[in-house]
Amino acid sequence: MINISNLEKKYKNKTVLHINSLSIEKGNCIGLVGNNGAGKTTLLSLMLDLIESTNGEVKINNENVKKQNWKSSTGSYLDEDFLIPYLTPKEYFEYIGKLHKVDKEAIISFMNENKSFFDFEEMGKKTYIRDLSKGNTHKVGILATMLFKPELIILDEPFANLDPTSQQLLKKKLISLHQSGTTLIVSSHDLRHLTEISDRIILLEEGKVKIDTPNNESMLEKLESYFILNNEAV
Ligand SMILES: Nc1ncnc2c1ncn2[C@@H]1O[C@H](COP(=O)(O)OP(=O)(O)OP(=O)(O)O)[C@@H](O)[C@H]1O
């Protein structure tokens, strides 16, 4: 589904990401980890054509992401810049729904299905996104990626700023999407959550893929040792 070849991103003369080759299969749930500055957001931004690569390319469904055809089948949320602050969550969902041909009734059912994660009754209809707390703002962005049932969802640190109950709900939601065949790429510093949802772990170190391995029972322990023992190989 996603093929990366010789992908490089430099700022001035500093290479912040260099991946020779990486393929992500349809239905994979990738947990992307790495220290601050390892290149996770850079990689996700290149996948979404938000920044220009210095060299190499990302293809989604065999097409360079620059061609933009992936947009109709990809939900993504990296940060608040994806949102429209002067809309209410409901209005924002209607906006996304229009882009992806989701009718108003389907949007209402989606909001009802997800009311334990985000209280649309209380905040969804009258509060502008700009006035929501950070956690609730992220919830709107995260849910919007799922509204139109895309085949690929890309999330950057979705567990950050969520309360513990919401983290559990999000985890369940991601597991269920994975089980129904959605391809997921999720970056996080929360190793426990990530190892619970992923079938494959990719660890970036200084812009390079240090580890790329199927998830297994001992993965959490191995990753914890990697981060505690100052980044010795897992
Ligand atoms: N616009 C920019 N100009 C210069 N350097 C940048 C720019 N954007 C990112 N970088 C650098 O690229 C490197 C990778 O950053 P990136 O945000 O991808 O890391 P990350 O793994 O997502 O980190 P974190 O866990 O802190 O979110 C960092 O050294 C960062 O300073």
Automatic annotation (TrEMBL):
Molecular-function GO terms, alphabetical: ATP binding; ATP hydrolysis activity
Domain of life where this protein originates: Bacteria
SMART domains associated with the record: AAA
InterPro entries xrefs: AAA+_ATPase (IPR003593), ABC_transporter-like_ATP-bd (IPR003439), ABC_Transporter_VariousFunc (IPR051782), P-loop_NTPase (IPR027417)
Keyword terms of this UniProt record: ATP-binding, Nucleotide-binding, Transport
CDD domains to which the protein is assigned, alphabetical: ABC_DR_subfamily_A (cd03230)
Gene3D superfamilies: P-loop containing nucleotide triphosphate hydrolases (3.40.50.300)
Domain ABC transporter stretches: 2-231
Any single Pfam family the record assigns to this protein: ABC_tran
Thylakoid is among the record's keywords: no
Cited PANTHER family: ABC TRANSPORTER ATP-BINDING PROTEIN ALBC-RELATED
Protein name: ABC-2 type transport system ATP-binding protein
Organism: Aureibacter tunicatorum
Lineage: Bacteria, Pseudomonadati, Bacteroidota, Cytophagia, Cytophagales
